[in-house]
Amino acid sequence: MNNPTLKFVSTDQEYPSKRPAEMRNADFREIADRYAGPAAEQQAGRCSQCGVPYCSVHCPLHNHIPDWLRLTAEGRLREAYELSNATSTMPEICGRICPQDRLCEGNCVIEFSGHGAVTIGSVEKFITDTAWEEGWVEPLVPGKARGQSVGVIGAGPAGLSAAEYLRVLGYDVHVYDRHDRAGGLLTYGIPGFKLEKPVVMRRVERLKAGGIVFHEGFEVGRDATLDELRSRHDAILVATGVYKPRAIKAPGVGSRGVVDALDFLIASNRKSFGDAVPEWEDGRLNAAGRDVVVVGGGDTAMDCVRTAVRQGAKSVKCLYRRDRANMPGSQREVANAEEEGVEFVWLSSPEAFDAAADGRLSGVRVARMRLGAPDASGRRAPEPDPGNAMTLDADLVIKALGFDPEDLPAMFGAPELGVNRWGTLRVDSKSMMTSLDGVFAAGDIVRGASLVVWAIRDGRDVSEKMHAWLKAKAASERAAA
């Protein structure tokens, strides 16, 4: 039998074709369709099956990538799905939104040889979407009931991943989330053109059908204190993520028309669900017909500029204080944004926000920057470049400078909940437990703003730690009875 892999020399790298920019700018559908079956098999067959799979090493979940690529190349799609699903609770979501150019594909051996990486993310998306269509995605089957319950605070990727694993282990699982739909940033933060919402909702519905109880529209601190939740459950997981927007310190930042990225994205995603969104209807969080300036260079900034284009903005500019080579966001996202008409103003930073007499934003004064000596992270630090200031027309500015943790001890009514100097929860490195007995934490609220794939990994890891602790607790209670 011929080896179906090792075809990277004879087969060129080919991603699923993207819809033309003028077409995709008119809607919030994902910008590319998935592979047809033969194309997926052909692209999977480019894998070199190398002895040290750097793709797996650089995947936070350590997915068995070469193995399911080989199975795909052989046409054994169900087996490929089962292997992909073995290490990830959301493979089709990771296939869509992971920055593969910085992780698996960016470390592909054949990429280093100049042949172009295997299109791992697109194949992963194809495998799992096919599994859903063919009915291979099995219902969540709870394990034998243990008589213990777990409360999960936060229905984002870390919380959902942990909830699934804990339910399979036989625990009663209750998920508490402030939003009216589960999914966290998967649902309300990431636009549909990167992750269509039915893809998230079918995962959530699977968890609900498996007996996980969701308490939506529930705010810890308002509807119950942390102590009250601790009294209801044998263990608690805090997986809230980080939602506090980083501020810009500049004159006029309080002008009407200067908004936070997450407010803008949530409003847009709510409209996609058909919700009534007053701030969108009255124009406060709607870019239609406006000169839009987005400040920031990460993936959230890319989501904002591309959303503004689809809302019908008059113009969209992105200000970033470093150059293109030093921006933190995915280079693929930058390329997509440029195709869609976004103008990037590199080496620039807002100096002041001008407002008309009625307080409405009218423009942004921009300081030009240059790269100086490297900072503590090793990146060259931006510094002002005198004499090159300019003013940009703008009646909507979106601040996308990243997120910090909220003050959870104050919000939860739990001042004894330990945090570090960055405000993230302090956990024991081995047990993943916070300063409170039986209260664990995982995801961005521990590591800071990071990637969805890391949140899924943390959810997987913390479920194992919680399981060990809950078993010991049950044994101790039996011994004391």
UniProtKB/TrEMBL annotation:
Phosphoprotein as UniProt keyword: no
Molecular function via GO: 4 iron, 4 sulfur cluster binding; metal ion binding; oxidoreductase activity
Known cofactor(s): [4Fe-4S] cluster
Coiled coil, from the record: none
Listed SUPFAM superfamilies: alpha-helical ferredoxin, Nucleotide-binding domain
Domain FAD/NAD(P)-binding: 150-459
Domain Dihydroprymidine dehydrogenase positions: 25-135
Matches recorded under InterPro entries: DPD_II, FAD/NAD-bd_sf, FAD/NAD-binding_dom, GltD-like, Helical_ferredxn
A Pfam family recorded for this sequence: Fer4_20
Domain of life: Bacteria
Keywords attached to this entry: 4Fe-4S, Iron, Iron-sulfur, Metal-binding, NADP, Oxidoreductase
Record PANTHER family: GLUTAMATE SYNTHASE [NADPH] SMALL CHAIN, GLUTAMATE SYNTHASE [NADPH] SMALL CHAIN-RELATED
NCBIfam families registered for this protein in UniProt: gltD_gamma_fam
Descriptive protein name: NAD(P)-dependent oxidoreductase
